[in-house]
Each structure stands twice: as C-alpha cells, then as structure tokens.
From TrEMBL:
GO molecular function, one term: diguanylate cyclase activity
Region named Disordered: 1-68
Basic residues bias locations: 47-57
Pfam families named among the record's database cross-references: GGDEF
Swiss-Prot/TrEMBL catalytic activity: 2 GTP = 3',3'-c-di-GMP + 2 diphosphate
Origin: domain of life: Bacteria
GO cellular component, one term: plasma membrane
Chain ranges of the GGDEF domain: 125-257
GO biological process: cell adhesion involved in single-species biofilm formation; negative regulation of bacterial-type flagellum-dependent cell motility
InterPro entries hit by this protein: Diguanylate_Cyclase, GGDEF_dom, Nucleotide_cyclase, Rev_trsase/Diguanyl_cyclase
EC number: 2.7.7.65
Protein name: diguanylate cyclase
Protein species of origin: Bradyrhizobium forestalis
Length: 259
C-alpha cells in the first residue's frame, strides 16, 4: 500500500529556492591570496637582513715566514750588488793606475788629458803637456837588475810630484817615459819647468852594490788650449822630447863611482 506524501504548500521547494551568494573575503585575506597577472603573489616580500662583514683573514704563520724569506733575499741581493759596484770601481781604478808607482798609467793619463782639454774648450783655459824620458834607465837595469831600476823610477816620481802643484797630473806612459799635465802655463813658463825637472832628476844619486849611480831625463813640451787635441798634443810633446834627448847624448850613459 502506498501512502501519499503530503507536501506543505507554504514551504517552497528546494529547487525553487534562490542560491545565497558566498560571503566576500576580507580585504586583508584577499590581498594575501590575490595573484598578479604574472602569477606572483602581491604579498610584501620578506626583508632580507644584511650579513655582517667577515673580519679580514689573518695570514698564516707560514705566509709570514715566506715574506720574511723574500725580504732577507732582497737584502742579500742588495748587499751583493753594492759589493759588486764597489769592486767594479776598484778594478776601474786599478786599470787606470800604475801598480808600481801608484800614479795614472797611460790609460789613466790620457783620460785626464782628455778631460782637461774639454775643460779648456769650455772655459777658454790653457796649460802645458810635458813628456819626460829617463835617459839611463836601461844600463841601470842591465848592471844592477830591475829592482834597482824600480827604485830609480820611484825616486823620479817623488821628485816630479814635489815639483808640480796638487792640481797637476803626473802619469807613466810606459817603461821609462812619463807625462805631466800642468795648468795655466805660458810657453816660456812651460819650457822653464821642463828644464827644472831635468835638473832635479839629474841631481838624483843612487847607491847599488857599493856604487853611486846617477840617471837623467829629457823633456819635451807641447802647449794646450781650447783648440788642442789629446792625441796630437802627446805626439808633439814626444817629438820635442826626442829632440831634447839628442842634445843630451854627449853626457855619459852611466856614471859609476866607487864608494
């Protein structure tokens, strides 16, 4: 048996009832959940905290040791360089100095002569060049040995040095030949100085093996000025010296007097 279902005529049917709209989300909730057109959230980005700067890294003890080694190496190299420069200066001085007489050799004297002429050209100065040759050195060497000849040369250099000024230069050109660079001398004064040098050397006396020996010297002069040339001046003085030597040939080659 089917019982009839009573329908309340006052209560509307569910199919006919209007749908309620959902509640609108709050503004804050919508702002958090809202998406942008690019798909990113509009929520405020989190603020990043800045990390503190790391303290400078201290060098390890091994690095300190390496730096100390480098500094020590640099100091050592500088000391070696300074010593090498000092040694070079010594060798240059030796190369320009006569080892026996301790005066400029030919190289050293030619360098001094070139400097002097350059000075004369700049400041219009003048001077004189004297080339002097020992007359009887070879017989002394042959009779008494080279040690005796060395003593004669040393005595001659000492005599020449006493006869000139500190600003003048005495050099050995080689063997028994010497040269003197004299400042501010006229031709007359230069020739007088050459004669005085000859006389001073002629008066030297030496004793070897119980015998007294004298030497001698011949000198030639060349004037120096702004227009001089070092090589040419040496040639002129050397030629004048040989002329003078020819005039002295009448003198005894060597005089031996019994003690």
């Amino acid at each position: 048996m089917h019982y009839p279902v009573l329908v309340n005529p006052r209560k509307p049917s569910l199919s006919r009832m209007p749908m309620k709209k959902p509640k609108r989300a709050s503004a804050a909730t919508a702002k958090v959940g809202r998406k942008t057109s690019t798909g990113r959230s509009n929520a405020a980005p989190k603020r990043l905290t800045k990390r503190p700067a790391k303290p400078p890294r201290r060098a390890a003890s091994g690095d300190d040791g390496a730096k100390d080694n480098v500094r020590a190496t640099i100091r050592g190299l500088r000391a070696k360089l300074k010593e090498a420069q000092r040694r070079v200066a010594e060798l240059e001085a030796v190369a320009a100095t006569d080892f026996l007489l301790e005066i400029p050799n030919r190289r050293g004297f030619e360098r001094e002569l070139a400097r002097a002429i350059a000075y004369m050209k700049r400041y219009r100065a003048s001077g004189a060049l004297i080339v002097l040759d020992v007359d009887r050195l070879k017989p002394i060497n042959d009779s008494f040995g080279h040690a005796a000849g060395d003593e004669v040369l040393k005595a001659i250099v000492a005599t020449l040095t006493r006869q000139v000024r500190a600003s003048d230069v005495v050099g050995r050109l080689g063997g028994d030949e010497f040269a003197l660079l004299l400042w501010n001398l006229s031709e007359t004064d230069a020739k007088a100085k050459a004669a005085a040098l000859e006389q001073a050397i002629d008066q030297l006396s030496f004793a070897f093996r119980g015998q007294h020996v004298t030497a001698g010297a011949s000198a030639g002069v060349a004037l120096l000025g702004p227009h001089s040339d070092a090589g040419r001046a040496l040639e002129e003085a050397d030629a004048a010296m040989y002329v003078r030597k020819a005039h002295r040939r009448h003198e005894p080659r060597i005089r031996l007097v019994s003690s």
